Amino acid sequence: MVNENRLTLKRIRVRIPKQFHQEPIISQLVSLYQVTVNITAAILGANANGDGWFDLELSGNEIQIQDALVYLNDLGLEIWRETDADGW
After folding, report:
1. Which InterPro entries does the record match to this protein (predicted)?
2. Does the first or last residue of the chain, that is N or C, have fewer Cβ atoms within 10 Å of its Cβ?
């Protein structure tokens, strides 16, 4: 049985297509799903012509994190999950 209230940390990499560069995707994760987001790496310039990338650590309970991942998926963003302790 999974403890749904236990604090969980999930590391993901998200591709942000150009059409989403002005959208508040990260702040929506915090405000809508009450997850703590730590941006560990990012490539997204103010004048970026292409896609951007975020490496994120999401912290919250299992339900909050799963809901946040569904939100990102519903936006059509590519998401990679860290597979082991060595990274991507």
Report:
1. ACT-like_dom_sf, NIL_domain
2. N
CA angle centred on 36, ends 32 and 37, rounded to 5°: 100
**Residue 10 and residue 2: Cα distance in Å, rounded?**
16
To the question of domain 8-81 being in CATH 2.40.30.10, the answer is no
CA distance 49 to 18: 7
Backbone angles phi, psi at 36, to 5 degrees: -90, 130
pTM greater than 0.85: no
